[in-house]
Amino acid sequence: MRRPTAAVFVLALAAAGWAAGPGPSPARQAAPPAGTILASIDARTDAYAAVAKQIWDHPELGFQEEHSSALLQSTLTAAGFTVTKGVAGMPTAFTATYGSGAPVVAIIGEFDALPGMSQAAGVSERLALTADAPGHGCGHNLLGTASAAAAIATKEWLARAGRPGTVRYYGTPAEEGGGGKVYMVLAGLFADVDAVLGWHPSDQNSADASSTLANIGATFRFVGTASHAAAAPDKGRSALDGLEAFNYMLNLMREHVPQDTRIHYVVKKGGVASNIVPDLAEGEYQARHPDMRVLQGIWERILKAAEGAALGTGTRVEHHVTMSYWNVLPNETLAAVQHRNLTKVGGVIYSADEQAFAEKLRATLISPGPALGSQAAVQPLRSGLVGAASTDLGDISWNVPTVELDAATFVPGVPAHSWQAVACAGSSIGIKGMIVAAKAMALTAADLYSDTTLIDAAKEELHRRRGGAAFTYTTLAPPKPPLDYRR
Amino acid sequence: MRRPTAAVFVLALAAAGWAAGPGPSPARQAAPPAGTILASIDARTDAYAAVAKQIWDHPELGFQEEHSSALLQSTLTAAGFTVTKGVAGMPTAFTATYGSGAPVVAIIGEFDALPGMSQAAGVSERLALTADAPGHGCGHNLLGTASAAAAIATKEWLARAGRPGTVRYYGTPAEEGGGGKVYMVLAGLFADVDAVLGWHPSDQNSADASSTLANIGATFRFVGTASHAAAAPDKGRSALDGLEAFNYMLNLMREHVPQDTRIHYVVKKGGVASNIVPDLAEGEYQARHPDMRVLQGIWERILKAAEGAALGTGTRVEHHVTMSYWNVLPNETLAAVQHRNLTKVGGVIYSADEQAFAEKLRATLISPGPALGSQAAVQPLRSGLVGAASTDLGDISWNVPTVELDAATFVPGVPAHSWQAVACAGSSIGIKGMIVAAKAMALTAADLYSDTTLIDAAKEELHRRRGGAAFTYTTLAPPKPPLDYRR
Amino acid sequence: MRRPTAAVFVLALAAAGWAAGPGPSPARQAAPPAGTILASIDARTDAYAAVAKQIWDHPELGFQEEHSSALLQSTLTAAGFTVTKGVAGMPTAFTATYGSGAPVVAIIGEFDALPGMSQAAGVSERLALTADAPGHGCGHNLLGTASAAAAIATKEWLARAGRPGTVRYYGTPAEEGGGGKVYMVLAGLFADVDAVLGWHPSDQNSADASSTLANIGATFRFVGTASHAAAAPDKGRSALDGLEAFNYMLNLMREHVPQDTRIHYVVKKGGVASNIVPDLAEGEYQARHPDMRVLQGIWERILKAAEGAALGTGTRVEHHVTMSYWNVLPNETLAAVQHRNLTKVGGVIYSADEQAFAEKLRATLISPGPALGSQAAVQPLRSGLVGAASTDLGDISWNVPTVELDAATFVPGVPAHSWQAVACAGSSIGIKGMIVAAKAMALTAADLYSDTTLIDAAKEELHRRRGGAAFTYTTLAPPKPPLDYRR
Amino acid sequence: MRRPTAAVFVLALAAAGWAAGPGPSPARQAAPPAGTILASIDARTDAYAAVAKQIWDHPELGFQEEHSSALLQSTLTAAGFTVTKGVAGMPTAFTATYGSGAPVVAIIGEFDALPGMSQAAGVSERLALTADAPGHGCGHNLLGTASAAAAIATKEWLARAGRPGTVRYYGTPAEEGGGGKVYMVLAGLFADVDAVLGWHPSDQNSADASSTLANIGATFRFVGTASHAAAAPDKGRSALDGLEAFNYMLNLMREHVPQDTRIHYVVKKGGVASNIVPDLAEGEYQARHPDMRVLQGIWERILKAAEGAALGTGTRVEHHVTMSYWNVLPNETLAAVQHRNLTKVGGVIYSADEQAFAEKLRATLISPGPALGSQAAVQPLRSGLVGAASTDLGDISWNVPTVELDAATFVPGVPAHSWQAVACAGSSIGIKGMIVAAKAMALTAADLYSDTTLIDAAKEELHRRRGGAAFTYTTLAPPKPPLDYRR
Questions:
Q1: Chain A: touching chains (3 or more CB pairs < 8 Å)
Q2: Which residues contact D46 (CB under 8 A, 6 or more apart)?
Q3: CA dist B485 → B144, B282, C331, C335, D159 (Å)
């Protein structure tokens, strides 16, 4: 872990002046026009860019985002938010609240980095800044910052409008595996929330009523009895046998689960030396499906396969769930509003330099799907899509109406979790996409305060999609946050 | 089942004259010389040959040996034995007893045939008498008859000697899978027996203190849930998956059992049509080991593998033990006596015709091991050998001191369960080997009555080999005789 | 095989009068109205019902449909068609042609039954007419007859219209596995055809641009080396090992094929006795995918898995393809026309008796999906659907623009290949559905002759869907029709 | 690697005086009595103990035994041997020769240590001197030194006897895996040798005509195609699938190899992260059998299983043989001589302190087999035994008559490769066992020079056991010594 530099404090001081920003009117008045929101964000683009760049410069892994979290907290505090930190048992989790009463609109921030993805910004070749160090391959430096910008602009609009209502920023750690949001949900931190706005860095601009795959991950460890493999193999019980029998039954199971299920695994420990019957074998396993409720049923069967393998090979098995993310429950009501606002904001326009960089970067991709230029457009509104990714935003979405948008922070064709994504997330292209996201979210928040029938409709849709009153949110996640999962 | 012909009755009448045979002396006297035993058997060779031929002509499968059993009963009754039939819940099982008091010497007879082995006698090519019909591929037509001859000669000697003692013939059905002897042991029919003499048709003459493999066989049936394999495979649970997972774990287990274990299986039912997820799958399994007590431990693990496979594949499993044969516990004390007597009797001398037939028959074998001519010799006494075969004589041998000899009823190189064996068992070569066996057993019985310290020593050896008083005979065999196992 | 009764000849005589039927006008004139088509079919409903009933009464398996084929041939001959029989090397395949020149419209007939499906007609319980005998569980008795009715009505319209054009009935045997149409395609019998009309009995009325799954089926046979499983397992090479290793790799492969692929198998031969290492093992395998071109690639991998399994287990493998059906390539151009005409004809109206029967029959179903009454409606036009079934109509559809419709010959909820389907196919309900199909097809044929731009558009669509000029039709089907596949 | 201390040089200086030792007579004379051999070794016990302790103090892994090798070289040079170092392409391999002409008797020395076995000497608890550092768990510090002592005593005897003949010490590195002897054989270094004497530290004294298991070890690496396991598993080809299919077929193969075969493996690389289809998987495999010629046939089948697995899973496989050790071919002729001399020398007599240490050490063993006190005896001569271990002495034994003895350097019950063995090998107990071995080997060498008919008989036995003139020595070992196998 590197130490934050003095720059953190400089930024925080700069941010301290924001509360006086473009100036909210103290008196009640008709809802201020959207233009003031856009102007508020435009006016502070450089400051937001500096925040995003600092986080990018100091990438921190899940649950270890001390300085990234602190920087966003100070930014929001400086803008007039009240921060509660260390919530839900996670030192780097926090909420930042402004206003009071309903409606309560939540805006979600993330800020964790990925291991081994260190990469120089704005260059079109693989070049690690620090070998094996983390990097922002998923653009969460932009994610957390844009959401803060959206929250601040919303706060100003709310103040200017003189309406009741609360805007709350959620600083959610460890999206890349630790599942910070799950614990914030379990801690009841979303109990009073009416709608949730999130976004994610992408190579296009879109606001769909789309979903993700629910995802359960675990480590399975088989324990056997060691013996000399040549002299006394009959005295041994191979833990690797247990693991391989488990894998075999998982592969048989593939035929007998819904076809959009995914089961995948790797073997992490498979014995020490070939002349010793292994007494320990361990693998990492994941199962995914578009519906967590279906997935939980499949997971029960996976556990039985593990038990059956242990029983049949004279070994013992234990498993530790490391991740449990619900699929995102789409909300067409909110998606329609978000899409309208994203269209209003528009896409990302490249400068000549950015265009040149984008072209070079695309030359490093094997088959860049979307055409260059598509970053300037907003995709049509779609529904029914299910992405192959998984996110702990899913857990929120089954408790509160949630909408997510994508903004083109990456050059078209650049996938998340690539060095190219890191290079974009640290460049002006990333900043431009981040600003698009901030504006679209703030406009949507304003719409929700202005017309609370939207919230009613969104809640009604959530109720319906969950299958009515019978729904109960449950999770297989470990009871306490796995704070050391990246150690 | 074919009906016995009138010949059966003719033979029985002929046998009726036997009780007056070479004439026992009513008065007590010194033990008669062995020569009288040999003479007794020689004098009736033709009658015994006729019995063996009738059984060969009417081969009957295990537990269906009505006429074979009846013929042996009538032969023994005619010779003065008292027959009890239908013992131990098996219609074709019987005992035939002569004399009273200790020592009680048992002589074991078998008479079941093998399915599909119909073959013409004395011809050197594959030629079924009746397609797919049974045949005496294991020479049990000779086995049951030689043992009867030995019992009769023993009875005459005993009568002549005027000694106390009992000779008892055991008519044991279904050696080829049903395990008649197991049920006779369980019924307590060997409770008063001091020593057991058995023999088996072979291609050599020997009397070793050798053993066999303990053997447990079972049917495992997996039950799943059928569904359309293209339209709804996720609704199905494949019984074949269960079976294949079981097999997989058995194959893993091979590394972790003693190396002289055997596990083998076939798949008998593996689904009906490829577009239906199979709801039924079934296999036949056997496990063997030189020591039943070790094998029972391995069997426990096999059952767990089956349960584990069912658990892991969402299926259900049931199993039915079809066979449980203990390994033969050798007795060196008895083997030494038997070997001495076999050596006294000598091997089988071929006529010119028999020699010509033997040469032709050997030409049909891929690699006939022992040399032609070796049937005339007696092999040296060996101990410590373990044959790959299995027999329900094993179950007797753990309860009473038991010795078995081999006699050369088959041309050297001819293996049991071959058409060549059927051809020999129905020819004069088979009869000659049968007479060797009868003589050697009767001589040994006489020795045991004459010197009961041999029995004491044999019992002491049994006690020691079983591991002392702690031994308890147990069996995994089905509680009742599987009378329909060949139906 | 049962002999057809005299009724066949009676029917044929009756049919002889048809050529003079409702009377075509000798002179050229404007296209006759659709009403004449409907009237033509209505007028002969009883005769068609009699044909369908005769075929139902004499169900014949694939490639053995001697009398069913002969009856349809005589019906068409009597109506003025020229029949060529025994085409493409299949004794029961035929074509029946009327007219000359383009456009050539093909109408497809099928007439094979399913094994073991014998069932009384019009009764609401399982009741086989002849135990284990075939039955029309797929309603092909109706299929072949309705298509003949459509061809005859089309011929009359064509004659009356005085237009150039050809209508050709294809008598296609062995749809249930033998793939008669594949061989008719390979023989070039569709070379001059402009459009193909087919239909299938169903429990609803619809004409969608839907598809089916391409399907390749084969027998894989592994050959090893037998040996005694206890005495010399190291001398054996288990064919069952080969099969199980093949299955193992297929199950691994499931993860690495497109998720809408299906691979399913059963084990038909897995060894004879557990004490013999199996030298023969055999299974039936199928693979399916919505696109035959993708499936052929997957099939290549399946063959490699088989080879790899043989290589790795010291066995040998051979396979015999038993079925290769392309997915149906939908044609939206033709589907739109067909749907319009089906809507014009309307659904099936039950009498009170039929309603009562339908209710009783539905009571035997576990969960009848569509509501009773839905048989009276026509479903909206859909596209993009892929059914889980497979048909050799697929092979035609990649060579000529093809459209298929469903007509409600079965009570709503009754699945094909059920005894309930047999019961419907032999009852008045089946006949009513058949008439709906006949009318809709004939109307569509008339439209195609009347407006040949439809054919041009359909061909253009076919060209586009096939991927342009580069497409070449290939098949993995056996080179000659497997005429004995049901023997 | 640690640097040798000054002690090395001190020892070498001391050794320099040895050549003048007990004094060989320059003139020819009758063979000197065995007593002079024993006296020669007794006289230098302290010096040999110092050499053994130095090597123990500086344990070096295979092919890295720079200082151990140098110390033995200087010891032999000082004693009048001519050293050739760096032979057969291995820097730490050497020969040390004295005398000329036939017979040539080779004495084998080893000196490599085992990884991770660092342990304090003479203490009865686990106590590493340096964590994770190597240690002499196989007692090779004693092995190399005793052989040097035997060679020196032999040289003196030879000089005193005035006979022609050569004694040659072979400094053979990397017995624990690298197979130094294999390369010395391949380099022809044993071409002129008439007999080979070896020994090994043990917990008993014995000289049997026993054998070991031939052993082939290899790394198998499967290479597949990576892809995102949730988004595009069909684009991936899992290398782990390849590895698991290979393992599956190996487990099937267990039934079909001779029962005394061993196949064992561990998985070393089984994928990086569960959401990526693994493109690399790697395992370590070993196969063993009492006869290398049988094993080479099995190895061919193992290679085919790997190829089959790759073929069937769309992956690629490569393998690298890391070890190929022939089974030791026993020589009863030499074993009889060696056993006689070992008996003459007698076993190891413990002092009171040693006895106390031995008792404490045995208390740390779970079930110490042989009784304390058995180290003082010499075991009876046995033949036909096959140990479960493997050694590259096997490769020599198929080229030259070879005999090996065991001496009780370890407390009875202490197994090789245990910390207890390290503790013994560094203590006075180890030294005493070493002296027993040195004496017995030197006596045997003297016998061979004295009676060359023994060598003729040993060669004749080798010829016969190899199967006559047809035998050709081949090896699957890598063509060049794997000098970096422990790096």
A1: B, C, D
A2: none
A3: 21, 16, 60, 61, 81
Using CB atoms, which residue from A258, A306, A314 is nearest to B301? A314
Which of B248, B254, B260 has its CB closest to that of D255? B254
Residue A229 CA to chain centroid, in angstroms? 47
User: 3-state class of A282 per DSSP?
Assistant: strand
Cα B7 to Cα B13, B92, C424, D78: the distances in Å are: 10, 20, 63, 97
Q: Give the CA distances from residue D138 to residues B402, D4, D106, D199, D349, in Å, rounded to whole numbers and listed in that order.
A: 48, 21, 21, 12, 21
Q: Which two tokens stand for residue B485?
A: 């196992």
Q: Does B248 touch chain D (CB under 8 A)?
A: yes
Residue B211 tokens read as: 């053993």
d(Cα C63, Cα C65) in Å, to the nearest integer?
6
Question: Would you say D68 and D55 are in contact if contact means Cβ atoms under 8 Å apart?
Answer: yes
For residue B23, give both structure tokens. Answer: 């004439």
On whether the CB atoms of residues C70 and C5 are closer than 8 A, the answer is no
Nearest alpha carbon to residue C110 among C322, C370, C326, C391: C391
Q: How many Cβ pairs within 8 Å bridge chains A and B?
A: 101
3-state SS track over C93-134 = CEEEEEEECCCEEEEEECCCCECCCCCCCCCCCCCCCCCCCC
- Whether chain C has a CB inside 8 Å of the CB on B366: the answer is no
Q: What is the pTM of this model?
A: 0.90
Encode chain C (487 residues) as per-residue pLDDT tens digits. Answer: 222 222 333 333 333 334 333 434 333 345 677 788 999 999 999 999 999 999 999 999 999 999 999 999 999 999 999 999 999 999 999 999 999 999 999 999 999 999 989 999 988 999 999 988 999 999 999 999 999 999 999 999 999 988 899 999 999 999 998 999 999 999 999 999 999 999 999 999 999 999 999 999 999 999 999 989 998 999 999 999 999 999 999 999 999 999 999 999 999 999 988 989 999 999 999 999 999 999 999 999 999 999 999 999 999 999 999 999 999 999 999 999 999 999 999 999 999 999 999 999 999 988 778 899 999 999 999 888 898 889 999 999 999 999 999 999 999 999 999 999 999 999 999 999 999 999 999 999 999 999 999 999 999 999 999 998 889 999 999 999 999 988 8
| Cα of D251 to nearest chain C Cα, Å | 10
Among D233, D301, D307, beta carbon nearest to C255? D233
Q: Which residue has the tokens 């324990």?
A: A223
Residue of A nearest to B256 (CA): A234
C263, A255: Cβ pair inside 8 Å? yes
Q: Which residue has the tokens 């009597």?
A: C78
Taking CB atoms and an 8 Å cut-off, how many pairs form between chains A and C?
A: 20
String of DSSP letters for B34-77: HHHHHHHHHHTHHHHHHHHHHHHHS---TT--HHHHHHHHHHHH
How many other CB atoms sit within 10 Å of the CB of residue A8? 18
